Amino acid sequence: MPMNILVTGAAGFIGSTLALRLLARGDRVLGLDNLNDYYDVSLKEARLARLHAHAGFEFEKADIADRVAMARLFAARRFDAVMHLAAQAGVRYSIENPAAYVDTNLVGFANVIEGARRCEVGHFVYASSSSVYGANAKLPFAEDDNIDHPVSLYAATKKANELMAHSYAHLYRLPCTGLRFFTVYGPWGRPDMALFKFTRGILAGEAIPVFNRGEMVRDFTYVDDIVEGVLRVIDQPAQADPGWSALSPRPSSSDAPYRIYNIGNSQPVKLMRYIEVLEQCLGKKARLDLLPLQAGDVPQTVADVSRLQAAVGFKPGTPVEAGIENFVEWYRSYYRV
């Protein structure tokens, strides 16, 4: 049966890609976004234009931090599921502008989950992040690992979202599933992301910033794999874990309808290899500006996705060679370079 689904952050990178897939399978989507100027608004508008081509899509421009607007939205609508992707993104920007993260990632999250509770949404799914693992050096990262030592405010807000969701799952039995995304990349990405910056810099003949002098490892995850995982999770509302024990509690589940899953490629790639593949796709060598590790960054991320695979039968697998090639093809077409 087709569902009515609210996608917050629908003009964003992941949100627009997900909304397209939902529409393609016959769901009705209300897209919500405030179209802020954190990056080029015309790119957001171009993403929305693809969605407006579908009869099942509606768009509402609003800020999730606006409590009155959110209350009005949820009072007027009924949703089978909410996919909450709207957030102030970026680890490094959280150091420069912490207030934006408090307003959007904390106040905004509270407004959306309260609206979902009030209109009795069947499943509240939200984006968390691999950044929550913070100073934890155990690899691969697993959902039951300790995440008490975030190294950026962005990461702290994402951990807070997971805790807030659990309280709603416990108090109101609202099914809540949090998805920890690992370094998402691909066509229609954000200009502040590494692949976007590297591509622009290499084509312009400029030196590209390479932090930790290239000694970084990331679990780069292609956007279509992220979206496939999200789709499968939306269709399986979180349920109470009958094996959960208050004497030895597992962070990834609960006696409330609550789940946490990693979504990552589980194929860690060295940053220099990532750049090498990009050079091959562009047919041009990069000039590297080797810099120290930046505040808020972690040297390595690797996802254990065994819980996701067991729950929904899916494991991301797109290699960076294919994903970067697709991004470059899109970038050249979109920017006509």
Walk me through what this model shows.
The protein has 337 residues and is an alpha/beta fold. The protein is built from eleven helices and 13 strands. It has a seven-stranded parallel sheet, with helices on both faces. Helix 1 (13-24) crosses helix 8 and helix 3 (67-76) runs parallel beside helix 5. The N and C termini lie far apart (43 Å).
Please report the distance between the alpha carbons of the first and last residues. 43 Å
Helix content: 40-55%
Largest sheet, spatial ordering of strands: 3-2-1-4-5-6-11
Low-confidence stretches: none
Give me the strand/helix succession: EHEHEHEHHEHEEHEEEHEEHEHH
Average pLDDT taken over every residue: 95
Broad structural category: alpha/beta
Strand residue content = 15-25%
Outline: globular
Q: How many individual helices?
A: 11
- How can the largest sheet be summarized? 7 strands, parallel
Number of strands: 13
Radius of gyration: 19 Å
